[in-house]
Amino acid sequence: MVQSNLELSIVVPTFNESDNVRELLDRLRAVLGDTGWEVLFVDDDSPDATAALVRSIARTDPRVRCVQRVGRRGLSSACIEGMLASAAPFIAVMDADLQHDESILPAMLELLRSGTADIVVGTRYAKGGSTGDWDGQRAGMSRMATAVSGLVLPSQVSDPMSGYFMLRREVLDACVRRLSGLGFKILLDILASAPGKLRIAEVPFSFRKRIAGESKLDELVIWEYGMLLADKTVGRYIPVRFLAFALVGGLGVLVHMAVLAVLLKALGLGFGPAQSVATATAMVFNFTINNILTYRDMRLAGRAWWRGLASFIAACSVGALANVGIATYLFQTRTTWFLAALAGVMVGAVWNYAVTQLYTWGRKGKAA
Fold first, then answer.
1. What is the DSSP string of 174-220?
2. What is the DSSP letter of 149?
3. In what order do the strands lie in the sheet with 64-68?
4. What single DSSP character describes residue 98?
5. C-alpha Rg value of the chain to the nearest Å
6. In the chain, where does DSSP find H-type helix?
7. pLDDT at 301
8. pTM of the prediction?
9. Measuring CA to CA, which residue among 250, 248, 253, 252 is closest to residue 290?
10. Coil, helix or strand for 10?
11. Are 2 and 34 in contact (CB under 8 A)?
12. Are 96 and 171 in contact (CB under 8 A)?
């Protein structure tokens, strides 16, 4: 097989897509032919051995590569790692589930080759494109998310939520250090992070029905989208994970007070035991919700969940002592009780966030 000079790298994030890999490769070979191209499958340690399958194919096809990630997940972050690991001057991102129409890849590439555009978006909403057999609920959510994206986008794009696009490497180089890597909308992240005005072209396509495997979208996609938007609006001033951590902490206070009230008023337990049970309940609640939401891309499971809970409780116990100590000191130096208490809460929150991020969720190889 004679290989042309490398021109196009196609990044394909995967999780449990072994049933689709060979079919996708056959389709790419059919439409790209002798064009100098490579495909990088970035696999988040799929239980169905997607990475092993890709490596077996790569032994006989040098255009196929595998990047296997262990201990972390996330579609956007997988795309970023794949793009950085690529070598071509043009980079495409597409899904492995065969829902993206590979036949438009040559047209997308030609727009970049000709210098017409910096980034080309495969759109479902321009004339000639469609969302396929989406039901009304999914179509409505997509339209709403597209409308909300205007809060962070400097450019008008018909389908900023598309997961199918192609860009010049210079675009990636210019914005990669500003990318959030949160959630699943990497195109929106790139468009909102680019330092200058991008020339954007669009190529319509019809979204296909998934043939094999299961969709990676779940009920928490709205949360992830909100995290991305928050990072693009206030992330330059305060870490968006800290905002999420603080929000969960606020909910934990409500849980604490509710449990305490029930134990004191309904069950007649003494204040000391009731306070202890309420504190423990709130800590378990905070850890569980942070594991699901704040650290969704590094979430813990199995024995790692229990180890994480233990380290979380230990860190927050120290944070509680710091909270009380700072607040008491400030109050004794004639600071008003409200400001003293607020300072204690802030010191405890920052401590808890910093320490648990490092020791609870920061350990490699512990994620689900």
1. HHGGG----SS-HHHHHHHH-SS---EEEEE-BPPPP-SS--S--TT
2. G
3. 64-68, 37-43, 8-14, 90-93, 165-168, 119-123, 200-204
4. S
5. 24
6. 18-32, 50-58, 75-85, 105-113, 136-148, 169-175, 186-193, 221-234, 240-261, 271-289, 303-332, 337-359
7. 83
8. 0.72
9. 248
10. strand
11. yes
12. no
Residue whose structure tokens are 């709403």: 144
Give the number of other CB atoms < 10 A from CB of residue 122.
Answer: 28
> What are the Cα distances from residue 198, in Å, to 118, 191, 283?
6, 8, 46
Cα–Cα distance, 85 to 205 (Å, whole number): 27
Q: What is the dihedral of CA 236, 163, 224, 211, to 10 degrees?
A: -170
Please, are residues 42 and 13 in contact by the beta-carbon 8 Å criterion? yes
Q: Are 7 and 63 in contact (CB under 8 A)?
A: no
pLDDT value at residue 43: 95
Query: Taking Cα atoms as reference points, which of 203, 163, 196 lies closest to residue 79?
Result: 163
Strands 8-14 and 90-93: parallel
- Successive 10-residue mean pLDDT values, the chain, 368 residues: 79 93 95 92 93 96 94 85 94 94 95 94 84 63 63 71 92 90 82 87 86 58 74 77 88 86 81 78 91 85 90 87 74 73 76 88 55
> Among 96, 108, 87, 104, which Cα is nearest to 167's?
108
Q: How many residues does the chain have?
A: 368
Any bridge partners for residue 367, and if so which?
300
